[in-house]
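Hey team,

Filing this mostly as a record. A colleague (T.K.) asked me to run one chain through the structure pipeline before their review meeting, and I want the input and output archived in the tracker in case anyone asks later how it was produced. No errors, nothing strange. Just documentation.

Input sequence:
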Amino acid sequence: MTNAAADRDVLRRFLLGLAEGMNAASESVDRIGETMQTVTRAYGRDDTDFVVLPTVILIETGEPEQGRVAIRSAINTSFRFDQIAALYRLIEQAKRASIDPLDGINRLNEIGAMRQRYPWFVRVFGHALLTAGLALLLAPTWQGAIIAFGLGALIGLLKLVRSPTLQLVFPVFAAFVCAIAVFLLAPYVEIGDPIRLLIAPLATFLPGGALTTATVELAAGQMVSGASRLVFGLVQLALLSFGILAAGTVVGVDDSTYVPLEASATLPWWVPALGVVLFAIGNYLHFSAPPSTFGWVLLALFVAYAGQAVGAVLVGQAVSGFIGALAMTPVVLWIATLRSGAPSQLTFLPAFWLLVPGAAGLVGLTEAVGTSAGLENFASALTSVMSIALGVLIGTALYRVVHHGAEEIAQFHIEVPAALTEEERPPFWARILPGTPRSFWGGGRSKPRSDAAEKASAPEVG
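Output structure:
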C-alpha cells in the first residue's frame, strides 16, 4: 500500500469515528453530514461522500472510477456530557485540519475510554436531584418532590448496572417499580397528579430528544433516519406506558387515577426557579459534565423555561414548547460559537428534557390506553412535540441566516465518467490556423482518446 493510499485509509477511519461519535452524542444526521463535509474540505479532500443513518455510516473517498467505500455499523451507545465536550473540541480541531488523522483516531479511542468524572454515589445523588427539580416543575408539591427524590435515587442506583441485555427491559421495569410506589402512596400522601409525578424519575428514559430530532430530520428531508427515530421514540413511550399500566393493574387503581388532578395548594413563585436550578445541578453531576459548562447549561434551561412560560400565556399550553424552543435554539447555537462556550448538544439535551415533549407524550399515551377520554390528550402531546421541533427548526434557520447568510440551493448534476468525456471542441478560427490542435492543415494532433471513448463515439453497425 502506498503512502497516499495509507493516508486516505487513515482519514476514512478518522471520519467514520467522528461520525459515529456524533451519533453517540444524539446529533441529527443532517448536522453530521455538514460537519463531515467541512472536515474533509479542511483536509483537502473534495472527493468524499457520506451516507449517515442512526445505525450505519458509509463514506466513499476517491474519484468515482477508483473510489473506495468504508462502512461502519454504529453501536448502540451514548456519550456522557464530558465525552460530548471532548468530542466537539476534537471536531473543532478537525475543522481546521490542525490534528493528524492518526492522532485523531487515538484521541477518539481515549474519549470512548474516558472514566467517570464523579464516583457512583455522586452520580446517584445527581439523578435524585434532577428528578426532584423536574417534579417541582411538573407536579409542584413538596411531598411529591421528596418522593421523586427517593425514586430518582433508586433509579440512579439501578442504572449503575451496565448490562446490554438488562438495558432493553430496564425502562419497563423502572416504570413499573416507580408506578407501584406512587400508586400505593397516592391515597395517603398529597402528591398532586400521580402520572406527572411519575415523569420525574423516568425523565432520562423519555425519548423527548429522539422525537424532536426525528421531527427536525423529517423537516430537513432525512426521511429514513427521521422515520426510524420517530418509530423508536414512540416504541419507547409505549414501553414506559406499559410499565405504568401494568403497575396500575397490580395495585388495582381505577380510570380516574390516570386523569390529571389539580393541586390543592400552590407553592411560592420562586419554586419553579428552584426546580430549574436543581435540574441543572442534577444533570451536571449525573452526566459528569465539565465544570466550565454548568453556567451555559443553566442559561439555556432558564431561557427554555421562560420561553415556554411566556408561550403558555400567549398561545396556550399545547404549543408553548414552540416559543420555548424558538427562544432557546439561537442561544444554544450562540453559546457553541464562543471560545469558552459549550457544545450545542450538551446544552440542547437538558433543554429538551425540560420542555418535556416526551413527558407530554407519556401522559397522553397512558391516558389514551388507561381511560376512555385520553385520545385527545395524546393528540395534544403529539402537537407539543411538533411545536417544539418546529421551534428548533425555525430558530436554527434564523441563526444561520443571520450569521452565515443564505446557502445556495443544491443543483441536480451527475458526473460523466472521465473515460467517456470528450475533449472540448476548439473554435473554428483555431481549426483553420496551421499548427493548432485539430487544424485542417494537420499541424497539430489531439490526445488520443481511450478505447472506451472511441467505442462510445463509433457508429453502430447493424
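Quick notes for T.K.: DSSP finds 18 helices and three strands in the chain. The longest strand covers residues 56-61.
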